[in-house]
Amino acid sequence: MACIKISNLTKEYGKHRVLDNVSLTIEENKIYGLLGRNGAGKTTLLNLITNRIFQTEGTITIDDENVVENGAALEKIYFMTELDLYPEGMKVKDLFKWTKEFYSNFDTDYAMKLSKKFGININKKFKELSTGYSSICKIIITLASGAEILIFDEPVLGLDANHRDMFYKELVANYIDEPKTIILSTHIIEEVSEILEKVIIIKDGKLLGDKEVESLLGGAYLVSGSSENVGKYIANKKCINIETIAGFKEATIIGELSEEDNNQIKELGLETSKVELQKLFIHLTGEEEVK
Amino acid sequence: MACIKISNLTKEYGKHRVLDNVSLTIEENKIYGLLGRNGAGKTTLLNLITNRIFQTEGTITIDDENVVENGAALEKIYFMTELDLYPEGMKVKDLFKWTKEFYSNFDTDYAMKLSKKFGININKKFKELSTGYSSICKIIITLASGAEILIFDEPVLGLDANHRDMFYKELVANYIDEPKTIILSTHIIEEVSEILEKVIIIKDGKLLGDKEVESLLGGAYLVSGSSENVGKYIANKKCINIETIAGFKEATIIGELSEEDNNQIKELGLETSKVELQKLFIHLTGEEEVK
């Protein structure tokens, strides 16, 4: 089991409230996307879960045990951060040995296999790796850690499209081989939308949503066609975005498509389609007002 | 006019050939994607075009003038690099003034307008900006530079999805307002596929392709359906990728769909669809062999 419960979590730095009364449960053996704009509070939340910083208010438990200064609970998690916290001067292969001292289930054979697959030179010093290979090194250590909960913070920074594709496939293979709780915090949302089961969306330190991807996407749709008829259709709808090109409009509507909607759309000669996760995210977390 | 001609360009570092006999013409007033894996030679090519390094062999001209130590030719280009080459300690607003000294057409009003739009604090020192805001600052300076050729090297590094979306929209608006030659080197390919007119693909220092996006995508297609029938169909085709899930296969085929192909696909109960640019890129530049 590896379930994280967060209750009324608040974190303040002086007068600045970075996280504001967040409550949510991260269920075991699911793949979560943690989504939010830069500065929304995602990394703060992950640092609190892993007890790298202390909350101002609220509690976090892993399998009902409080995480604060609780080594046994924290050993269940491996957290791949954006920061490099490894000892100075270590080579990639030394980092594997070093990690195994803290994570006894670390799978060195698997780490070596992944190193070959991703083409990383294990005799190179970590600090001398490019942005892309530094991310790859951290990805490999996280995947091989043997922890029950894997947290990735911006894992694909600097990775080319081929390496990103390999990472997503490896992550899914790893999960299928041994189901675990996975939290992916990333800005490259559309690429991972098919991997994620649930998403947690944070906006300005507040929890905006904690939903199955399917249900989130099912709660919105696109309507497109002539500006005039799209205008008629959206008059009484909750419309969160409109794109206009010449006499053509595409509107993003929040709500489920009823039979009545479908009839009206047909009558007006409009078309409907699905919203992409990344586009929905942009609209939900954007500042722009829709007229 | 702003046309770049590259002839038989080679760059070696000792025995390592980073670029190998590349010839291509970058036509004026088009939006190019420069695509390649990490280490393929993209940044080397851009550094050569902007005369930051010297070639081993070959020539580069801008509007028929050789770029080597040619200030007048080089002033036509603004190059947004991954590296930070700005003077130490400068605030964002000071960088605007500093850039105007070298680029007399720099549009300060536009830079200020963009700063507000992207939410960047112009009184902050450049070195103190986060990865995302550092990218935004460089994007703003490039867009406002007034140069005839804008080159962006990994412009969206660290940007959240909302800021990436704003950048793409602003780039298109800028281009429509005043057409210019734009080169975008990026790993986040799928998001820009609709913006690009042409793509240049580099693999291991060699030019792999220089094509209209439409013609590149038109030269490949996906075929999917039962493993057995997909297997039958691809027997005599050039297949560059196969994905298998249970009894289902999806194959990426290089070639154009003929009438005969369409008939065979229909008979076998298969379906065809378009290839995404990023997926095609991954297959074209990948190392994996297809069986």
TrEMBL record, chains A, B:
GO terms for molecular function: ATP binding; ATP hydrolysis activity. InterPro entries: AAA+_ATPase, ABC_transporter-like_ATP-bd, P-loop_NTPase. Residues 4-229 form the ABC transporter domain. Pfam families: ABC_tran. SMART domains: AAA. Keywords: ATP-binding, Nucleotide-binding. SUPFAM superfamilies: P-loop containing nucleoside triphosphate hydrolases. The keyword Transmembrane does not apply. This is ABC transporter ATP-binding protein. It comes from Clostridium sartagoforme.
